[in-house]
Amino acid sequence: MNLNYSILFMFLISFVIQYFVMSYIMNYNFLYINNNLGKVYLSIIVALLFVLYDIFLYDMDHKTIHKYHYIITLLLLIITIILYRTQYGINVKNYLLDIIEHNSILLQKSYEILDKTKDPEVKNLVKDMVIKAKQEIYNIDQIIESEESF
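-> structure tokens emitted (150 positions)
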């Protein structure tokens, strides 16, 4: 397969898996899954890392070095990391929706741990985290509903 097609395929598949599939796997409540720029940035970062891996495997297999592919991919990766770290283009509402999704992931993991652990200290800690996460979700929902625009 041509390297450019391989890179495009790897990027698209990795992006879709990270953006869509992982959200459904990791969330407690599918209603809390949202679309936002922060998730796009993270999905692009993961996809570009897989692209780097794809280029490396191609080069190893064909005993070549595609330095321009590496340079372009690394530049795109660095730019996307900077955009994510500075939260460029992410407004307050998107941030709050992202926190809700994050807390939904916390709930999913917490309920699984509560089923598995016998340690009372861990159970109490996790129960407190669940209460706080649910309260935070409720509070954020109230803020979003009360604000007409952000």
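The helical segments are 3-26, 37-62, 67-85, 92-116, 120-146.
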